[in-house]
Amino acid sequence: MSALDILVAELKVCLLEQKEIQNKIDSKKSNLLMHLGPNQNYNKNGVLITSRSDYDYSRINIQKLRAELAKYLNSEFIEEIIKLSEVSVDMPGGIIVRLDD
């Protein structure tokens, strides 16, 4: 297994982990909205009360792996990988990538 194969495999694992973390965050938001009143689920600064630390950590790992992949791949190949994935912007500064089955 080449270094490139290992990096691609690690990226896929991180992307799947990020998707699971995003699902947990969405579930927490849903639970908050169900159990708290309409004005109680936000802190005094108007920020939704939920933890994004796991999500942010996962996103940082994916950015590092993509940077590492860029050392081995040309930009056309990276663009092709992105085309094969469905990309949606979930929040400012955050991207969720769903790999096709």
SSE topology sketch:
Layout: H1 3-35, H2 53-72, H3 75-84, E1 86-91, E2 94-98
Antiparallel strand pairs: 1-2
Helix pairs in contact: 1-2
Description:
With 101 residues, the protein is mostly helical. It has one domain. It contains 3 helices and 2 strands, in the order αααββ. It has helices at residues 3-35, 53-72, 75-84, and strands spanning 86-91, 94-98. The protein has a two-stranded antiparallel ribbon. A hairpin with a 2-residue loop joins strand 1 and strand 2 (94-98).
Radius of gyration: 17 Å
Residues in β-strands, percent: 5-15%
Shape category: elongated
Q: Tally the structural domains.
A: 1
- Number of DSSP helical runs: 3
How would you write the strand order of the largest sheet?
1-2
Mean pLDDT over all positions: 63
Give the termini distance in whole angstroms.
22 Å
Return residue spans where pLDDT drops below 50 for at least 5 consecutive residues.
86-98
State the helical fraction: 55-70%
In total, how many beta strands?
A: 2
Helix-and-strand structural type:
mainly alpha
- Largest β sheet strand count, sense and barrel closure: 2 strands, antiparallel
**SSE sequence, one letter per element:** HHHEE
